[in-house]
Amino acid sequence: MSVPTLYPEDERLTRGERVVFNLYIITALVVFVLMMLFGLVMRMAQGTWLSLPPTLFYQIMTAHGAGTVGTMGLASSAVMWFFLRKYVRLNLWAFLTNYVLFTLGALAILAAVFIGGYAGAWTFLYPLPVHSMGEWTVHAAVLFMLGYIAIGVGFLLFYLDAMAGVIRVYGNLGRALGLQWLFGGEIDPVHPKTVVASTMVIITNSIGTLAGAVVLVMSIINAYFPELALNALLAKNLIYLFGHTFINATIYMGVIAVYELLPRYSGRPYGISRPFLWAWAASTVMVLSVYPHHLLMDYVMPHWMLVMGQIVSYASGLPVFVVTAYGALTNVYRCGIRWRMPAKLMMLSMYGWAAGIVPAIIDATIRINEVMHNTQWVPGHFHFYLLLGVLPMILALMFHVIAGRAQSLADATTDKLSFPIYAVGGLAFAVALLAAGHVSAPRRYAVHLPQWVPYDQASSIAAILVIAAMLLFTGRIIAGLLRAPAHVDPAHPAG
Ligand code: HEM
Ligand SMILES: [Cu+2]
After folding, report:
1. Which of 142, 118, 108 is nearest to 223 (CA)?
2. Neighbour count for residue 173 (Cβ, 10 Å)
3. What is the extent of the structural domain holding 441?
4. Which residues are listed as membrane-spanning (predicted)?
5. Ligand sitting nearest the alpha carbon of 385
């Protein structure tokens, strides 16, 4: 198996593709910066450095949660699209429609929050959206949920198009996942990891998104016809089946960048293996069955589901992570890799993913969850893997693409500065949240007790570092994307 060139022919974008890809990436970066500023505002308000009416805090919290999760989905689906289109036929209109529906949905969400005053959090947990205590109208809550539906329909369309493409080439989803090789037989050495990962996401996130659609439609009907009450426990189950799966899918789409790009930077092939196929097959089942770890406080849940939530939590993140991290580390071990931005970001992502899982596993233990549930430990965990794990995967592809469009592959001076600032700031930010959780500071409180304030202030400073670095990244990437492609591969000038 040979090592591909840095910029293989089949990855070139046509003009139309480039425009849509740029739309995704530029939108995602701009929204991330804005959402991070929202985050900073919340942190500074909790830290008493900024005075913010609590109602506005919860509006910002709602926009931040919905905006970051949605945008993470958008950006990581661009990673999946970028690589999957080499192996199966993807229709550009489906990719573009997803973008358009996302934009419409995002506008609806922003209007619902900042004009309508909706502040029931991104999880729209029933019956919160319809119990606003006069803070927002039913229409605002419904507009928020309609925004989600638009985004969900866009994603479903994108996944259905990808599913059709995968089935056309591989016959069925099972063969694309490589299930035929689980118990023996010679694995096709060129079966793309990208296809395995994409297929897993197509299956799981379609199911998750459909669960979300069902509970959204139920909630909207209930908003206008309150006599049709919902079963709150069922609604919560559907919401977390959707929410857990959607945010996890961002890792599984983002990691495709590592599978594809790492061997090019290390100069070593990064082959497929039976443990790899097992890990992805197992995760397909586990991602969907692990969500009860969000309901460990709900004593009315069937006991076996909570036990399953705990046990599967221990196992769920691990297989794919282990094969990926092991694969990545052995791939770069003594390979003489050149530590350019994409390579650095990919290594950071392996660390952020690994370290970010640990607090989640701890919190998914029922006895520990009784204490840690709804403390800042939880945002500590997910900011860890999102800021230091998933976002670096996405940024790695972006820096890779812009280096290909520039005439030189060398990192700009700003990159040498922005990378460490981002890594240190992100780590400090996440650790401060975890530490606050450790002393039982609750999450989702606009106002904090004096003994929690030092954590809020420390993480505000860390957040400023993250945002500064993100601004530098964003400027570099947008400038790079708007440049016409150079169509050269400086690493392989002849090829
Ligand atoms: C500089 C960057 C960021 C800062 C300063 C920040 C800050 C915050 C703060 C203060 C909260 C509320 C914590 C609480 O419950 O007390 C929060 C919640 C949250 N953040 Fe961030 N954040 C940042 C980046 C991100 C990113 C990149 C993502 C994901 C892609 C993200 C996703 C979320 C989510 C999902 C919530 C939960 C909202 C809720 O509880 O309803 N954040 N963030
Ligand atoms: Cu979860």
Report:
1. 142
2. 16
3. 9-481
4. 21-44, 56-84, 96-118, 138-160, 201-225, 237-259, 271-291, 311-333, 345-362, 382-401, 421-441, 461-482
5. 1
Quick check: CB of 379 below 6 Å from ligand 1? yes
Closest CA to 208 of 363, 73, 388, 387: 73
Q: Which two tokens stand for residue 304?
A: 């076996």
Task: Give the residue from 113, 116, 142 showing the smallest Cα distance to 129.
Answer: 142
Nearest CA to ligand 1 atom 4: 39
Domain for residue 491, yes or no? no
* Helix 391-405 with 54-84: angle, nearest 10 deg: 50
What are 217-240's pLDDT values in tens digits?
Answer: 999 999 999 999 999 999 999 999
Nearest 5°: CA angle at 150, between 101 and 218?
175
The pLDDT of residue 487 is 55
What CATH number does the domain containing 216 carry?
Answer: 1.20.210.10
Backbone angles phi, psi at 442, to 5 degrees: -75, 155
| Predicted local confidence at residue 446, as pLDDT | 97
Residue nearest to atom 10 of ligand 1 (CA): 43
Cα 296 to middle of ligand 2, angstroms = 11
SS3 per residue for 377-404: HHHHHHHHHHHHHHHHHHHHHHHHHHHH
- d(CA 350, CA 355) in angstroms, rounded, equals 9
Enumerate residue ranges in the chain where pLDDT < 50.
Answer: 488-495
* Lookup: tokens for 377: 């430990």
Q: Is residue 487 part of a domain?
A: no
Q: Whose CA is closest to atom 31 on ligand 1?
A: 68
Q: Are 45 and 455 in contact (CB under 8 A)?
A: no
pLDDT the model gives residue 492: 47
- DSSP run (H or E) holding 95: helix 92-114
Instruction: Name residues with Cβ closer than 5 Å to ligand 2, which is an ion.
Output: 244
The helix (H) or strand (E) run that includes residue 52 is none
Q: Where are the alpha helices (DSSP H) in 230-336?
A: 232-266, 274-289, 303-316, 318-332
Q: Report pLDDT for 2.
A: 61
How many Cβ atoms sit within 10 Å of the Cβ of residue 54? 12
Does residue 490 form part of some domain? no
Instruction: Give a three-class secondary structure readout of 195-254.
Output: HHHHHHHHHHHHHHHHHHHHHHHHHHHHHHCCCCCCCHHHHHHHHHHHHHHHHHHHHHHH
- Distance CA(31)–CA(38), nearest Å, equals 10
| Tokens representing residue 409 in the block | 């592959």
Q: Please tell me the total count of domains within the chain.
A: 1
Tokens of 151: 């985004």
- Residue whose pair of structure tokens reads 């230091």 in the numeric block: 388
CB proximity list for 367: less than 8 A, separation 6 or greater: none
